[in-house]
Amino acid sequence: MTNSATNLRLKLPMACIILEVIIIILFGALVQYDDETDAKLWHKEIANGSSNYDNDFYYRYPSFQDVHVMIFIGFGFLMTFLQRYGFSSVGFNFLIAAFALQWATLMQGFVHGMHGGKIHVGIESMINADFCTGSVLISFGAVLGKTSPVQLLVMSVIEVTLFAVNEFIVLSVLGAKDAGGSMTIHTFGAYFGLMVARVLYRPNLDKSKHKNCSVYHSDLFAMIGTIYLWMFWPSFNSAVTAHGDDQHRTAMNTYYSLAACTLATYGLSAVVAHDGKLDMVHIQNAALAGGVAVGTAGEMMLTPFGSMIVGFLAGTISVLGFKFLSPILEQKLKIQDTCGVHNLHGMPGVLGAIVGAVTAALATKDVYGDGMADVFPDIQSGDVEASFQGIRQAISLAVTLGIALLGGLITGFILKLPIYGAPPDTICFEDGIYWELPGEEGSHEELTTVRTPDEAEKLNA
Amino acid sequence: MTNSATNLRLKLPMACIILEVIIIILFGALVQYDDETDAKLWHKEIANGSSNYDNDFYYRYPSFQDVHVMIFIGFGFLMTFLQRYGFSSVGFNFLIAAFALQWATLMQGFVHGMHGGKIHVGIESMINADFCTGSVLISFGAVLGKTSPVQLLVMSVIEVTLFAVNEFIVLSVLGAKDAGGSMTIHTFGAYFGLMVARVLYRPNLDKSKHKNCSVYHSDLFAMIGTIYLWMFWPSFNSAVTAHGDDQHRTAMNTYYSLAACTLATYGLSAVVAHDGKLDMVHIQNAALAGGVAVGTAGEMMLTPFGSMIVGFLAGTISVLGFKFLSPILEQKLKIQDTCGVHNLHGMPGVLGAIVGAVTAALATKDVYGDGMADVFPDIQSGDVEASFQGIRQAISLAVTLGIALLGGLITGFILKLPIYGAPPDTICFEDGIYWELPGEEGSHEELTTVRTPDEAEKLNA
Amino acid sequence: MTNSATNLRLKLPMACIILEVIIIILFGALVQYDDETDAKLWHKEIANGSSNYDNDFYYRYPSFQDVHVMIFIGFGFLMTFLQRYGFSSVGFNFLIAAFALQWATLMQGFVHGMHGGKIHVGIESMINADFCTGSVLISFGAVLGKTSPVQLLVMSVIEVTLFAVNEFIVLSVLGAKDAGGSMTIHTFGAYFGLMVARVLYRPNLDKSKHKNCSVYHSDLFAMIGTIYLWMFWPSFNSAVTAHGDDQHRTAMNTYYSLAACTLATYGLSAVVAHDGKLDMVHIQNAALAGGVAVGTAGEMMLTPFGSMIVGFLAGTISVLGFKFLSPILEQKLKIQDTCGVHNLHGMPGVLGAIVGAVTAALATKDVYGDGMADVFPDIQSGDVEASFQGIRQAISLAVTLGIALLGGLITGFILKLPIYGAPPDTICFEDGIYWELPGEEGSHEELTTVRTPDEAEKLNA
């Protein structure tokens, strides 16, 4: 099932070890504990009257761990729906996430975290690194099953770098707000990945068509991913918002958006699916769109009412996208989007950006009170009007789309070079190409061998 | 595998969308941020000297997320033990939980959370909504496999409403304590569900008997649910107790009760099961009874010693219930209790209520000190004697049983109307009736096809 | 599949119930709430000016729950990789963990937690009990599939006791630091278990060889365990360190060590495995070695740079151990190490101890500032030089190895008595010996029956 082209004995070790050595050297040269992780500096703060409870660790670590679960279990298992790609789904997700969080620490540090020539790290940099990693994993969803781990590592190197640049432009230059990343994470990751998938278009992918689908148990494994993403999305959106009401409100808005989204998803799925039955693809994906769509506005005074409307719309859009838009993307635009990230992250991300722009434009001192300083510091300080904050948000969406599409285009061509051990069209969506599979060399037939009656007959002829 | 009667193309979307639209309208009219989630109000508190750390979010959000995991992963996967009902177990659990938590926010708000005509929401209302949802999911366990999602939504509408009423009577009118819900959640959910199952009795259910059992992998998926419920039960029982020693003590009492319960469960299972072997049904369920049984007394000064005795008893009762009582319930009382909720939630819930009444009656100022105000404010204030608090607890159990049984009776008859697309007796416990199953339309035989030697022979004849 | 020798109808209930009754009696006689879980005592602290937030519950409960997940889900599912031993892996893990955490509370209390003749319990004792349990589960990994649950309970009784003794010597007598337990948990558990496995050597174990391997889905279940262990290891190492910078820094160092370890693992796995493919055994295990290896030094000022180097080394050593050392251990030293705990916990634990000794020896007031008091109180107080702290750490490793090996030796001989219902060589690694399996008595062939073409042919002859 392998040949020399896809044999990774040299390629993968070289990629992993060279990248890790570079990272370690850069960490040695540039990375320092921040004031809250350094023994000496924190005890200076204590001496100046801080209490240990003021350490940001206690405000953010539970959220961090929830985000961490979303990155490693959520994304990893969500993609195990493919019948013969579970090892790769969880395993490559694990690999590129472990790489990307380190690389993101460096890139985000370079772009907006330098202090006296050093990158300071602590719980907030850890969350931000996980966020950037999430964006890469969204792109991974678009190319799932058609790429080698070496390609994925190369993609991560570029995508993380561009993510940090885009994030800097959106948050620091344009002064937009995007705590849960509707723009910076979801829109960016989705359109970057879709463009990569476009460039890597395989006209003969239907040779692997029979493997590009689920089986009963693989769908159950995928539901582990779905449910964890759903449950912890409130933590994701609130992980880096301001302390107090902001974290509290963001988590709650997200919770309501997701609940409404789920009802919309079930309703719409039964409408559009075959025979009035529910389709697991919708449940696994569209029910999450509500979290994406309040990624920008969740920290604002969106209200539970507003959050539910947004969630309801997001679920609706997402199911309809799976049913009607995905086939068009594939046939007309030649975008083979394995996990349907356009429906889960792309459109809901754009919706979230728009909702954020509108909500920001409507912000008033009367509603936010002194809390304005946390959510819209520039409005509080009088630097901008609310309406202009809305415009900044809208421009940020455009910039994000531009950088994502252009970045994905370039990355796609780089990944097209025939040096990374990509799978041939006939054995995409197949673990056996990169993994030693159990039972292959033993005397036992494998558990999961899918056999048609015809094949069974031949065996017994 | 479907016919027009069970086709949900219109019924399920109508139910989902109408319910969600009603909820959104009611949220728009009635629901507001509370003081801790509202930007303006919280910053007034800050201006008055509060610190961000005083925001209840930091006291309760980690517990909330643990409870959330129990509701969506714990209950969802616990019910995947059925061989061909995994999609429905996780999927319908997801649907009705997402609905019930919204509806519960409204119903609990109406009954005991109105402030100037508005329902105030924050982390505590989120936890309480999840608790109410838990009760519905317990009832779901009794009717698992024999009901359509539309029936389940209708059941949720009624059960959530009655739950809120009962909770109000028990906690506010009668002044009982029930932080972890031995009465309000477990006893209520179990007896409500059992009564529904009684009314929906199917004399010919044995036509689906071959599907009403587990296979090897489905039992492993179910263990995911069991273990998560077991681990996070300390968070469940302590999620809404008073800050400080109360949360701390409740979590610890629950931890010890569950540990002792687990040893009792393994011991008893080997005694009663076939050939001295362990029975997965016991391990998956009875090991959790210790959490149920300290749901009322866990916040009291039950001591680790007392908690262990209660846990040990709960595990024992539960295993014996599965072995000896469930068959009687089914044959004599015509209650087909799919998940055995009577053994996991019913009897241990009643045990927990009794333990709570006794522990309350024994409370003394000498033991509780000033902590009496948190646990038994009415005893502290001198309004009642400890013995009378015990009586209140006992009356609360009786009220809960009454409302649950009567509510379940009425609900059962409503659900019996032949308009909800319930499955026929021959295809209960079968996902295919409501879900598009992978592989059904493709050229591949499905992975999980269970084939007897006879069938295999025919295929190859 | 059973005979009277392995029938546990009397043995397991007796073991479970006698042990639990002893525990309950001892808890009744000896265990008390500590100052932070007792209603009266905590409210005295409140009266003296403490705030509820000072209750250690809020500093440590989220970490506790993460550790709890590692113990019950992490270890439990990691061991489900065996094709026919999933019930036992999760189920016996559950049983012995539930027992060990109770027994550990007593043993650790006797040795270093007595206050006026009573053992005081609270969140820190709960974490320490879970830690001790982790050590037992590591040993369980070495003997997985070859032992009865009664043997495992007996092993737990002894191992927990010796763990507490060793922990007392290392931490209290020798004054070493080992917050994440590189020595006390991992080294101890691994070498104890390996010695037990040595004594229980089965020369004819190859009779069960065909069951001592994974199948596709069992490897996916195992990945649930791996990923949870990986994600929550930062919480494990930081769970009992000092508040503030110490918890924060320890979590972060562990996070970086694991990330670097993962890259090393993937790189090395592709180098050494067959055909340049990745080997699930490495991914499931070696990627975790980075957490083990910073168990001692993680709380020190190891820096992210140092943590990554340690993690990289740990992953490398671990993969090479699986490839080259495990076969030698089995063939030459007659140690049948089912899960390869020597590679995941043994060697990385020793590495962690050495790293801890070196890092301690290099500690300077210039780097730690006033934080020295938290990490190295004896250096801060001037009682010892940093270099001597390093020597203490090294001696602690030697002591740990000695107690583990000797304890394992004695325990092995005790477990060799033919009274515990151990499985015969022919049916090791098989759930059916101790569990009622689904489908065995029904009319359906079991899902997971592994059938060779030959067997299929015979069936159809």
UniProtKB/TrEMBL annotation, chains A, B, C:
Keywords: Ammonia transport, Cell membrane, Glycoprotein, Membrane, Transmembrane, Transmembrane helix, Transport
Transmembrane parts of this sequence: 12-33, 67-87, 94-114, 126-145, 152-174, 180-201, 213-233, 253-273, 285-302, 308-325, 394-415
Gene Ontology biological process terms in this record: ammonium homeostasis
Membrane topology: Multi-pass membrane protein
InterPro entries hit by this protein: Ammonium/urea_transptr, NH4_transpt_AmtB-like_dom, RhesusRHD
Residue ranges of domain Ammonium transporter AmtB-like in the record: 49-419
GO cellular component: plasma membrane
GO MF annotation: an example: ammonium channel activity
Record's subcellular location: Cell membrane
Chief location: membrane
Pfam families: Ammonium_transp
Organism superkingdom: Eukaryota
Family, per entry: Belongs to the ammonium transporter (TC 2.A.49) family. Rh subfamily.
Its biological purpose: Functions as an ammonia transporter. May play a role in the elimination of ammonia in the gill.
UniProt-recorded name of the protein: Rh family B glycoprotein
Organism: Oncorhynchus kisutch
